[in-house]
Structures are given as C-alpha cells and as structure tokens.
Amino acid sequence: MRDDVARLEGDRPSVAELEDRAFELRSKLLHLCGTYEGAVHIGGDLSAADIFTALFHYGLRVDPHDISNPHRDRFLLSKGHAAVCMYIAMSMRGFFSYEGIVDTYGQLDSAYGMHPCKVQLPGVEASTGSLGHGLPIAVGMALSGRHRGDAHRVVCLLGDGETGEGSVWEAAMAARSNSLGNLVAFVDRNRQLMTSHAEERIAFEPYPDKWRAFGWDVVEIDGHDMASLVKAIDELPAPDSDRPTVVICETVKGKGVDFMERNLAWHAGSLGAEDLQRALAALEASRQKETV
Ligand SMILES: Cc1ncc(C[n+]2csc(CCOP(=O)(O)OP(=O)(O)O)c2C)c(N)n1
C-alpha cells in the first residue's frame, strides 16, 4: 500500500483508550465553556462526544498531516452548532492546537467559529450550521467519489431534531436512488431540540422504520457505549456496497454532567469559574459510576 494511503489508517486505539479520550474531550469542552464568555452548545456537544471520539480516533481514515489526500474519508458535521466538539476532537487527533481553539473561539475572524467554516479552517470538509444541509452535501460528495471510483467513505453526523427538515429526507432518497453504500449517517438521537423535547414538536417515531422505508440499512446503538460504536464502525458495509447506512445513536443531551443531562436549559450556555468546578466534579463522578 502506498505510504500516504497507509497513513490514513492511523492508530486504532482500544475501547478503553477511546473512553479515556472521550473523557478528555468532555473535560476540555467544559473548560472552554467555563472560560468563553458567550454561550457554547454544550448539551449537544456532550451528547455527541463519544461519537466524535469514535469517528476521529478510530473510524475515519484521515491524516492530519495530509488533509487533502484524495483517498481520505470525508466527515461532515450537519449539526454544525456542535463545531467546538469537533474542533477539540480533531485537535486531539493532531489537526489543530487546543490552545488555539481556546484562545480565539467565537471571536471575529477566528478560524474557530461557533459553526464550522471550511474556508477559514482547512481540514473541515463543509461549512455548516444551517441545519438540514449536511446530508445533501454528503450525498453530492459520495456521488462524486463513486464517479471517480474512489474507495473512501463520506460520513455525516446529524442531530435528530434536524432530521425534521425535509432536505434530509430528499437527500436520504437520493442516496438510495444512487446506491450510495459509501455514505454513512450517524444520528445523535438525544431526543431534544433547542427548547423542547423532540417528540412534542414532530412525530419522529417510528424513527428507525422511517430510515428503513427510505431504503437505508439501519443500525441502532447506545451512542455512549464505546464498544458499540466501535462495533458499528467495524461492521459498516464496504464503501463499494450499494446501500447507505444510518447508525442511530441513542444519547443523552448533556451526557456526563448531572445537572445538564436532559435539561432543556443546557442546549447552550456558559459556565462561570464556580460552575466549571461543579461540572468537572460531576463529570469525574459520572466516570467513577460507570467504571464501577
Ligand atoms: C435551519 C436552522 N434552523 C434553526 C436553527 C437553530 N438551531 C440550532 S440548534 C437547534 C436544535 C437542533 O436540534 P438537534 O438537531 O436535535 O440538535 P441537538 O439537540 O443534538 O443539539 C436549532 C433549532 C439552525 N441552526 N438552522
């Protein structure tokens, strides 16, 4: 195998190592939320932290030192408001420096905006933030990969709330019509929107059946169980297969910090110094509980 392609494989950390990285990712997120003066989308960052870790540290074939490698997997963050979680997960993989994120996050002209911008931040594959756009862009990229005969995957992370957008389902149909087995969607199914519980606003259920009806293979997992995330990634069909896959990850908004979990008030917010210590202690306690 050519060196530049072999490097895309990267290390494959164990489940225990990935769990440690997810803890570090959450800690770094909380620190940023404790120092940044504006609001951070901390609830949906924490719900997706394990998914980001599994993708950037295990599943995605990407090389932080060769970001334009044509054979790399493409990752698109459709729930663009979770950008900071992606930046930190990528920094832990070697794409950016964490200090650079903390120093400039959310400032005018910073590369690290509240939503990701591929022009400002090379390594980011798509500019997102207006919900409902990531999957349509991913379909185009997957189609292009197919036409070129490339073997990479296109992976898109969506919020469950944003799948209330019609554009998501148009993209889902197009993916099936074009037999895009190189396309994988992960859904952060935390069952909350910005200010309400998902099912109160839109009848999402029977949610997995809806994806099946659109011709997708559906995998349902606990999105906080690293072993399940790794297994789902390991069992993805080959990129040259003909059916797109959606991995529906059952998650908890605010996961890891008890006073944020399932709390609608923590879709976005900021922690002062005192609450930061409280949040870090809660995170540590949650880890202790899970390792017992
Ligand atoms: C088109 C569009 N409409 C509204 C918003 C504002 N908005 C930001 S986050 C959010 C809630 C999204 O819910 P979900 O996709 O489930 O994300 P999560 O709960 O995981 O943060 C909304 C409505 C937006 N970014 N884009």
From TrEMBL:
EC number: 2.2.1.1
Record Pfam families: Transketolase_N
GO molecular function list: magnesium ion binding; transketolase activity
Key words of the record: Thiamine pyrophosphate, Transferase
Cofactor: thiamine diphosphate
Limits of the Transketolase N-terminal domain: 40-280
Entry-linked InterPro entries: THDP-binding, Transketolase_N
Family: Belongs to the transketolase family.
Name used for this protein in its record: Transketolase N-terminal section (TK)
